[in-house]
Amino acid sequence: MENGLEDGTLVHWHGIRLPNAMDGVNVLTQDVIIPNEGYEYRFPVSGSRCRNLLVSLPLPFLRTGRPRTVRPLIVEEPAPPDVDQDITAILFDIRLDDTGQFDMEFDRADFITAGRLGDLMTTFLSSEQARLGDHIRLRLINPTPDRIFEIRIDGLTGFCVAYDGMPLPELVSLGNLKLAPAQRIDIIADVTGDVILRETVPSGGEELGGIMLNGQRQIRSAPIAPLPANLVPAPGEITQTADLFMQGGAGDGAHGGFGGWAFNDVSGLPNKPLISARRDEAVQVRMVNDTAFPHGIHLHGHHFWETDQNGARTHLRDTTLVAPGKTMTIVCVLDNPGAWMLHCHMLSHQADGMATWVQVS
């Protein structure tokens, strides 16, 4: 990677299992790449733990408000499912000023509330045409800094087959879909009409983009099957439990001195990790959202299990959304050595202090 920007930057490969030195995190894994210098990222790509990735350079965006660089990197299975089209849909929002130009300002309110939200929402699609009856794979990716997308999709009959690149053991029916920043959803479905992606909150049906019909084919009779499972070690006995209290933001007088946001009374990366574990330890983290805003929490280098109210493991993800006043408990086998960042993926919140780390020896 050659840095032709006016500012230092790094590349983080969101969603891929790689050596810690290649993770692209300042302080924890490498120094910032200064302007006019470069760095070679080198790591194996096995399709076992990564399917839809985000490749991002977020630091210049957070300093200037200019759109950051985001590209999807698709790692295919050894035997991809038989579909007529494989389509990527990148959800995005854009903030415009009164003249209709890109708004480059970054207000303090963007940091201490829900984040920097655009006023124009859209979808960038790798294909905008399909035949009636086509059997398609649709990869939804939310690379926005702060916006949670809540959408529905008209014109498809099918199922969600993967979250954050991890196949679902049981298919999930299509309904209203919610994606926090950096989350991904894979869908396999039949085209039954014009495919329209609609944003359901707050507008109640605003069109984000669509795939228009062009021709027709016979709908396949074979049922949709789950994708082959990824090889992920099942957790044994939980050896450590940690609490992660989310604090700060507008209206939080008790934590206003943190400069915005904090984990466990610390704003910014602490000197000591939240967890220090030996390789292959199974740990549990109880994430408590004591703020007035939602937070999407991402762990680098690993996937983890979300759990339900009864403590049962549900979905494997690398980013989980915790609503205001709610608690999410995750279980993770820490099997990838290194210093791994754990942070809010509302990047305005991360930049203003909502970050910690775990150490795997």
From TrEMBL:
Transmembrane segments: none annotated. Keywords: Capsid protein, Cell cycle, Cell division, Copper, Metal-binding, Oxidoreductase, Virion. The keyword Magnesium does not apply. It comes from the Bacteria. Residues 2-48, 262-360 form the Plastocyanin-like domain. GO terms for molecular function: copper ion binding; oxidoreductase activity. PROSITE patterns: MULTICOPPER_OXIDASE2 (PS00080). GO terms for biological process: cell division. This is Multicopper oxidase with three cupredoxin domains (Includes cell division protein FtsP and spore coat protein CotA). It comes from Sulfitobacter delicatus. The lineage of its organism: Bacteria, Pseudomonadati, Pseudomonadota, Alphaproteobacteria, Rhodobacterales.
